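**User:**
Everyone, produce one record:

**Assistant:**
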Amino acid sequence: MSLRIAIVAPGEMGSGVGQKLVQQGLTVLTSLKGRSAASAARAVRAGLTDAPDDDALAGCDMVLSIVPPKDALGLAERLRPAFARAVRKPVYVDCNAIAPETVRRIAAVIAGTGARFVDAGIIGPPPSATQRAATTFYASGEAAPEFAALSAHGLDIRVLDGPLGAASALKMSYAGLTKGFTALGAAMILGASQAGVSDALARELSESQPHFLSFLQRSVPGMFPKAYRWIAEMEEIAVFADNVAGGPDMYQGAADLYRRIASAVAEVSDAQRDLTLLLDFCGSAASAPMRQRS
């Protein structure tokens, strides 16, 4: 019998993963409850089926939670009654960018329903026919091998030799580096711009740190439409880094910066200047002559 998979919710990542599974011949349900018309259209394009209720979701073999970090706990709480009622219990896979501490809270919500729980972290962009970069799932916990069965259906799933929370710890570490570097770069570009030395900074980076400059030119403008999603992710990383000297403050600061950028993208007038300064730097840096340092 073909596996039935539920994915909540049909955002870019959820729809991309769902479409990949549909193309492999699996039935993929989702929930459009409270979702926008754009989400509904995305789900239709991906070939996902709208579940009539939470009991239909709980009746699937696996339920993948792919939501913004701030919604991860709430989704588990919403689905708990349906899992408790289900005759045939699903595997609940939390694929969100959350701290191991949050993972354990969600696992506690699911405990007692009979559903098996998997901690998973996604690294990479949403799967698509045009995206060359890989989308990799890391999984941990006793039920992780059950989730890994989807490796036979087009997903790259790697089971970690570690306890529940190991996959999220890896995701937090990876995102803390990549998105943390982007936040640090954006903060210093703004500082240099406000001090009137942005052109000099671009020239110096082109000479001494060309690879880092290239990273900033890609990552900073690319971050703008995602900043609103990265706020809660930075806050989760701050929780993860609680025992690292300066870690919580560093990532709370990154969350504040992304909140400011998200406001600028949403056209909040007093934040617009930051967006302009960042775009100006990345544009001018791209045209700066590349010279080797003697």
In short: The beta strands are 4-8, 27-30, 49-50, 62-65, 91-94, 116-123, 136-140, 156-159. Residues 145 and 159 are 7 Å apart (CA to CA). The domain at 172-286 is CATH 1.10.1040 (N-(1-d-carboxylethyl)-l-norvaline Dehydrogenase; domain 2). Residues 289-294 have pLDDT under 50 and may be disordered.
